[in-house]
Amino acid sequence: MGGAPPLRHRVDDPVTLLGPPPPADRLRGWLVTLVVTAVAALVRFTELGRITEGGHTPVFDEKHYVPQAWQMLRNGGVEDNPGYWLVVHPPLGKQLIAIGEAMFGYTGFGWRFAAATCGVLTVLLVVRAARRLTRSTLLGGLAGVLLICDGLSHVQSRMGMLDAFLALFVVAAFATLLVDRDDVRARMARVVAESRAADFEHGPRLGVRWWRLATGVLLGLGCAVKWSGVYWLVAFAALLVIWDATARRAAGVPRPWAGMLRRDLLPAAWALGGAAAIAYLLPWAPWFASETGYDRYAVETEGLQPWPLVPQALQGLFVYADRVLEFHSGLTTQGQGAHPWESKPWTWPMGLRPMLYHYQSGPEIIGCGSDDCISAVMLIGTPALWWPALAVLGFGLWRAVTRRDWRWSAVLVGYGAGVLPWFVNIDRQMYFFYMTPVVPFLVAGTVLAMGEVLGRRGMTRERRQTGLIVVGLWVGAVVANFLWLWPILNGLPITQEMWDMQLWLPSWRQ
Questions:
Q1: Fewer beta carbons within 10 angstroms: which end of the chain, N or C?
Q2: What would the mean pLDDT of 52-60 be, rounded to a whole number?
Q3: Collapsing DSSP states into helix, strand and coil, what is residue 145?
C-alpha cells in the first residue's frame, strides 16, 4: 500500500562511504570559470603601468626585485653586482618578473606584467578549487568574484614584487591536492564496488598518483620564490597523509593508518620531498652555470673547507643560503628599527594595519577637479571581506571539530600555514603583504560559509530564497566596497577630502 519505499544508500555504497564525485556540470563549470577569469584580467591589467615614482622608477619593494630581474636579463640569468648585494630570496620570482621586462621593456607595465598574469591565473584556480571543495559551480564562481574584489590581492597582482607568484604556486598546489584526494577516493570507490577493500589488512596499492607529484613540484616552485613556501609544504604534507588514512578507513580497510604508513608514506615523501627539492633547484640552473653569480665559487674564493663528496657548486649554494638566512634572522624591529608600515600577525586576519605603497601630491597631480590632488596606492584588504574573517574562521573551526568537516579542515590548514608560523618570532619585521597567499583560503572559507547560508537541498523554498538574498547582499557589499576603494588601490587622482574619507580607521594612517 502506498507504493515502494524510498531508495536508501546501502552501507557499502561507495558514494556514502567515500563522498560524492565532483560536480557533473563540466561545461557550465568551465564557462563560469572563463568568464570570471576574463573579468579578473580586465580588472588586474587596467592601467597596470600607471604608478611609478617620478614616472620611471619602481615603487616600494619593487625597487629591490625589478632591477634584480633586469640584471638577470643582461647577465645570463643571474645577479652578480657586488655593490648591490641584497639578494634575500631565491631566483624564481625575479625570473618571472624578467619575462615581462623582456617582453615590454623596463617600464611599469613590463615589470608588473608577470605578477598581473599570475594574479589572473590565481583567480582561475580559486574558482576551480572552490568548485571542487563545495561541489557547487555557483560557489566556485562567487569565490572568483570575491578574490577579484579583494584589495590586497588586487594591489599585489599589480606590483613587481614576489608575493603574487608565491600565491599562485600555493593555490595551484592546493588545487592539485584536492584533485588527488578525489582521485584517491574514486580509486577506493572502485575497490569497494568490487568488494576488495578488506582483502588485505593494509588495503590496496593505488598506483602512480600524478596529482600528488604535481603538488610537490608546485610547492617546490613556491619555495623557489620565497622560503616561506615551506610552511605550506609541511601543512599540505600533513593533510595528504591524513586524507590517505581516512580514505582507507572509509573504504573499510582493516588497518587504515598502518596501510597509509606502508602504502602511501614513502611515495608521499618522494612527491612532497624529493620532487619538491628538484623543482626548487631548477630555477637555480643559470646560477650553477654562471661564473659570476653571488657565492658561486665561495668555497674557493673564501678559503672554506670543502665537504667531502659534496660538489663545490652545491656547497656554494649552501653558503648563499646561509647568508640569506643570516639576513632574515637580523631583520628584526630591535636590530633594524621599526618600519613605519610594519604590522604583527594578530592584526592580519581583519587587515587592521594596511600599507602605503605610493603617495604623491602637488601641482603635478591633476584630474581630481581640485588644485590639491592626491595619488596614492594603499595595500588594504576589502573590509566587507576581511572584517567578518574571525566569525568565518570561528565557524569553520567549530565545523571542523564537531562535524569533522574535511573541507573546513583543509581551508583552516591552508590559512593557518600562512599566519601561525609568524608568531614564533614576534620581534621580526613583518608586513601585511605576507597575507597574499592566505587570501584565497579566506575566500574559500567565506564561500563555504555562504554555502551554509544558502542552505541544503530539501530545505523549504522560503529558507533557500532567504539564504540567496543574504548571500547576494554579502557579495554585493564586497563588490561595492572594492569599487569604493578603487581610487586608492590604483593611484587615481582624488581630492584631500576623498583621501580622508577612504581612511576608515586610525590604524590605516601612518
A1: N
A2: 78
A3: helix
The count of C-alpha atoms lying within 13 angstroms of the C-alpha of 312, restricted to the half-sphere facing its C-beta, is 12
> Is residue 170 left, alpha or beta, with left meaning phi > 0 and alpha meaning psi from -120 to 50?
alpha
Q: How far is residue 433's CA from residue 155's CA, in Å, rounded to a whole number?
A: 10
DSSP 8-class letter at 494: E
Rounded distance between C-alpha atoms, residue 41 and residue 355, angstroms: 24
d(CA 394, CA 351): 17
Q: Is the pLDDT of residue 13 over 70?
A: no
The angle at the Cα of 375, spanning 373 to 377, to the nearest 5 degrees, equals: 155
Residues 6+ apart with CB under 8 A from 339: 333, 429, 431
Strand partners, 332: 428
Instruction: Tell me the per-residue pLDDT of 64-111, one tens digit each, with 9 for 90 and over.
Output: 899 999 999 988 888 876 555 667 899 999 999 999 999 999 999 999
The rounded distance, in Å, linking the Cα atoms of 135 and 128 is 10
Q: To 5 degrees, how large is the angle CA 322–CA 218–CA 223? A: 15
Amino acid at 446: T
**pTM above 0.90?**
yes
Place of cell 603601468: 49
pLDDT in tens, 276-326: 999 999 999 999 998 888 888 877 777 777 788 888 888 888 888 888 888
